[in-house]
# Entry
Amino acid sequence: MITGSIVALVTPMIRNNLEVDWDGLKRLVEWHIEQGTDAIVAVGTTGESPTLDVQEHMATIAAIVEGADGRIPVIAGTGANSTREAIEWTQRAQQAGADACLLVTPYYNKPTQQGLYLHHKAIAEAVDIPQILYNVPGRTACDMLPDTVARLAEIPGIVGIKDATGDLERGRQLVDICPPDFAIYSGDDLTAVELILMGGHGDISVTANVAPKLMSEMCRLALAGQADEARAINQLLQPVHQALFVESNPIPVKWAVAEMGLMQHGIRLPLTELSAEHHQKVLAALQQAGLLNSNEMKAES
# Structure
């Protein structure tokens, strides 16, 4: 089972043409390994999956797998609102060497709970790779309910869920009704510590893009039941958690990572650069947590 701090990695882009910055991506992967990140999600929401074409999507997964080189697991984002497409992408991620796949609930077409069950069942039966469900109703207009998760947890190959509702009561339900070997990950940095302390297994994190060492230590402490110590780190990071959502993710976090010198500024339409009115809030949060000027890696100009 993959546990701990799992970064939902941003996809760096070259500022002048917004092509994927492959060298920058390799540097980010290496930095995360050095900083203690436990696993990487490639091309999830934070990785701008909606704005990468299929070739870029798969090439990004392959580049992260190559960069990680077996040192930490790579979880590929392969969800789609077409079951056939999700199967194809999951097969291709497996061929690229991903250790597991993260599959968001089908968005926009609003399937029933039975439709969700059959969708994920079909993917699990078609592709022999560990699969993590991803429930983020605030983005998808589709909420996978706990009973459906429990049914899917019985299917071989479906090994966990990223719950991004931020609802700790929902998290408690999942812990209570799912098998002990079924991984329950937070998808909400603000509440991740509390979910882990009640029996969760880790955090698929936006904040880990800017604070990998602190997030790794926080998750390690929470998994060990050291609640006070884990909560102390979380308290330090609260302004960062909040600042990274002043506009839609990944707008603030990509800007923050670039301001830290870890990559170039660059984000594709329809997303835009962080509005100037939010710059100071994000910088102040990073500074308060001791994250500015804390690394030696600089992006190429």
